[in-house]
Amino acid sequence: MAASEIAGFIALTLVLLMFAMRDMRLLRAVAICSNVAFIIYGGLNWLLPVLALHLALLPLNIVRLTELSLCRPQSSAARRHQS
């Protein structure tokens, strides 16, 4: 199996995982990993629509994850878990 196919399967697995997630921070983190995998896949196969989409989504997901991390306090359940 070629490296580009491996990157594609990793990317699609990450997208499937995103649909099962309830925590927005984790979802954004996995989305960032998915974007990177799709960028690799699109770059290796020179698939411009895939490459362009994920090059645009990557900074958006990074910004949204940063906003979540800075602005949103932890839930009471998360605080109890850390204690």
Commentary on this structure:
By secondary structure, this protein is mainly alpha-helical. The chain has one domain (3-82). It is 83% helix and 0% strand. The chain has 4 helices and no strands. The chain has helices at residues 3-18, 24-45, 48-71, 76-82. The longest helix has 24 residues, at 48-71. The protein is elongated, with a radius of gyration of 15 Å. The protein starts with a helix and ends with a helix. The mean pLDDT is 90.
Major pleated sheet:
none
Task: Give the helix tally.
Answer: 4
How many beta-strand segments?
0
Task: Give me the Rg, rounded.
Answer: 15 Å
Tell me the number of structural domains.
1
Q: How is the topology of this model organized?
A:
Elements: H1 3-18, H2 24-45, H3 48-71, H4 76-82
Brief summary:
By secondary structure, the protein is mainly α. The chain has four helices and no strands.
Search tags:
elongated; mainly alpha; 0% strand; 83 residues
